[in-house]
Amino acid sequence: MTLSVRDHDVSAHFYRSVLGLQPQRPESRGGPRQTVFQLPGGPVIELVQHQDNFKGRFDSRRCGLGRLTLAVANPGVLEAWEDRFTRMDVEHTPVAHTAEGSTLVFQDPDGTELALFVPADPDTDED
């Protein structure tokens, strides 16, 4: 998954310091600035700053990515992320609990909406 960013350095710092991701490939030379992060057991996130980008924040009303949702192992891990975001002054919503699971929503420096999600335990009650 590739995310276009306004400021490569600011975004790469966010993904490293806030989410704890480590770059997997060096930035390209001569083309757009980019960094690739491999999520543990999951997808690759590539940040790209195009030389002619429009410098505007992400707007979810435009076609494109609405939200990037990443799974976490359990509700305790989700709560730990919420505490981390609070300590780091990362704007976020409180964890929302629904029948489907629990979600913690936040934004990266460009306004791209990100979420951490843990599915609800399936109902194991037998009749």
Structure explained in plain terms:
This protein is α/β, with parallel strands linked by helices and 127 residues long. The protein folds into 2 domains: 1-52, 2,3-Dihydroxybiphenyl 1,2-Dioxygenase, domain 1, CATH 3.10.180; 65-127, 2,3-Dihydroxybiphenyl 1,2-Dioxygenase, domain 1. It is 18% helix and 30% strand. It has helices at 8-17, 75-87, and strands at residues 2-4, 23-25, 33-38, 44-49, 68-71, 96-97, 101-107, 113-119. The protein has a 4-stranded mixed sheet with strand order 1-4-3-2, covered by helices on one side. A 4-stranded mixed sheet has the order 5-8-7-6, with helices on one face. It starts with a strand and ends in an 8-residue tail after the last strand. The model has no long low-confidence stretch (mean pLDDT 85).
Taking the alpha carbons of the first and last residues, their distance comes to: 43 Å
Strand content: 25-35%
* H and E string: EHEEEEHEEE
CATH architecture of the largest domain: Roll
Query: Strand order within the widest sheet?
Result: 1-4-3-2
- Class by alpha and beta content: alpha/beta
In CATH's first tier, which class of the largest domain applies? Alpha Beta
Query: Segments where pLDDT lies below 50 for 5+ residues?
Result: none
The percent range for helix content is 10-25%
| Mean pLDDT over the full residue set | 85
